Amino acid sequence: MDATAVKTGTEGKIWGGGEAQPLKASYGKMMMWFFILSDALTFSGFLAAYGFSRFKFVNQWPIADEVFTHFPFLHGVDAPMYYVALMTFILIFSSVTMVLAVDAGHHMKKNKVIWYMFFTILGGFIFVGSQAWEWANFISGEYGAIETKGGKILQVVNAEGEQVALESFAVELPSARTQLTKSEALWYESESSMPDFDLAEVVEGFKANPDLLIRTQLLTEAGEKTILSREESLAKLENDAMGVVQGANLIHNEYGPPLFADFFFFITGFHGFHVFSGVIINIIIFINVILGTYERRGSYEMVEKVGLYWHFVDLVWVFVFTFFYLV
Amino acid sequence: MAHDATNHGSATKRIWTVFAILSVVTIVEVILGIIRPAFLVETHLLRMHLLNWVFIILTIYKAYYITWAFMHMEHETKGLRRSIVWTAIFLICYLIFILLTEGDYIFDVYDEGYISWDF
Q1: pLDDT for A263-294, tens place per residue?
Q2: Could you tell me which of A175, A130, A85, A304 has the C-alpha nearest to residue B32?
Q3: What is the fold, at CATH topology level, of the domain defined by A20-141+259-326?
Q4: What ipTM does this complex have?
Q5: Domain boundaries, chain B
Q6: Min CA distance, B63 vs chain A (Å)?
Q7: Radius of gyration of chain A (CA)
Q8: Helix, strand, or coil here: A148?
Q9: What residue intervals traverse the membrane (chain B) (predicted)?
Q10: What residues pair up with A74 in beta bridges, in sequence order?
Q11: Per residue in A74-89, pLDDT tens?
Q12: Which residues of A touch B92 (CB under 8 A)?
């Protein structure tokens, strides 16, 4: 970039930054860099807090390969991480089209900038949609689990060590508990739905199936979850079981410590929000490019600045991917 | 950042090269994540699997390419580059060090039974 000739359309305005260009970068670009620095530190704070909680529960953290196993249109197929890997590619590729748009902008090729930005925005939308799908799977859960008095999670496995869904073996018991409806209660009390099965039904079903075992959260030396013997399993259910949990929210989580779900929602949510706002900012600049604003201004530096933000979002995802799905 | 007509081709070529590097590294990460080679999981370095170190180093490698090539950090002046990168690296290393040390300590407190957490 020549230090002299960057026009931003803010010349003469008090927030235009004036003529001085310390470090040979325009005011807007330098401020974008410092914004990115502070945002990077925010994300580092979240990820370091995630690391803190993980170290605190280091012998019982969920194994990502067992949590994120879904792929669209492949029901029941165990596909660990393939979908996240695909999402990573989509985001990296939208970064590529963004940097191509910036490059085309340097050469004042308006049509190329328009097309590359269009593909960038498209990639952003696909990514946000994929993240929503990931969330939906995580929230609805897969197998269900039993929660203990100490807030630990017990999962049920068969003789081969494969996880078994609670509803597949829970028996039907005559239950005293009925759904609380408004007609039965005070006006402010009601419940949205009742679970299909309760703890007693799960325990009865467990006792009736002799090949079922309990898997605790504790990790063995080899990094696998501990599976109890049949006697230990029955004793554990008898003494510790407190309730059943299906899926994950901020308080209960069938995959392991609730903190895992909390950080998953918070960090990927915060990142998803960045992607979403990045898409919105890209759309604004995209419209400006079509209207010829930067053609008239004689510089596509605005495309470069939103490009910086977009690449930053990609950069953060690279770290989120590593720490949530790989490590 | 002297972009003119003569080096247009090389700028695009650089972009695609970097894309290839990022893709290959991501594919390697996913493959390692799925097969989890035994010798990498069993070997420990500074209380972490060697595999995790491999993931972290590959991630930093990717971050370097994104920042330098895609965000054009390589074309900025030395002063701007250092004020951003050194600040971030110093503060992040410090943060990670204190939080992970503390997390490790709290795990020991629970693990040695001063406070019961599985009842």
Answers
A1: 999 999 999 999 999 999 999 999 999 999 99
A2: A85
A3: Four Helix Bundle (Hemerythrin (Met), subunit A) (1.20.120)
A4: 0.90
A5: 1-75, 77-119
A6: 6
A7: 26
A8: strand
A9: 15-38, 50-71, 83-101
A10: A71
A11: 776 777 888 999 999 9
A12: 40-41, 44, 48
